[in-house]
Amino acid sequence: MKVTQQAEFYRQLGESIRKSRKRRKLSQDKLAKMVGLTRASLTNIENGRQHPPLHTFCEIVEQLGVKFAELLPRSLAPRDSIEVEALVGSQARDKNELAFIETGIGIKGRSGYGYGRKATKN
To answer: If we measure between CA atoms, which residue out of 53, 78, 59, 68 comes closest to residue 104?
Structure first.
């Protein structure tokens, strides 16, 4: 993923988190405490300046009561793919864990959504 695509991904992710938080009528401080962050960290995540670790993202999803897909950016052009491996980086211990993450968020083998790897026949 290009740096500009990655920056746009995290900007859109943060925007989705902010919108969902506001729909739940939660302050930044309240949500930050619920997920074990400082308000400043949540502000940075919502502005795309800080990239949440996977476990933090999962906690945010749980506390907001939404599905993963509701927070993931959708406006990136479908021809652009987001490499989950590049986003997860060293947080995934091995290829099995990476496959688990891709499957868990429902992107493995899908095409046309702008996420994940190229579709392959199983």
So the answer is: 68
Alpha-carbon dihedral angle through residues 70, 72, 77, 81, given to the nearest 10 degrees = -130
Full domain range(s) for residue 42: 3-71
Question: Is the backbone of residue 21 left (phi > 0), alpha (psi -120 to 50) or beta?
Answer: alpha
Total residue length of the chain: 122
pTM score of the predicted model: 0.63
Rounded CA separation 53/122 (Å): 30
Please indicate, yes or no, if residue 95 is contained in any of the structural domains. no
Q: What is the mean pLDDT of each run of 10 residues along the chain (122 residues)?
A: 80 96 97 97 96 94 93 63 66 74 59 40 40
- What is the end-to-end Cα distance of the chain in Å, rounded? 25
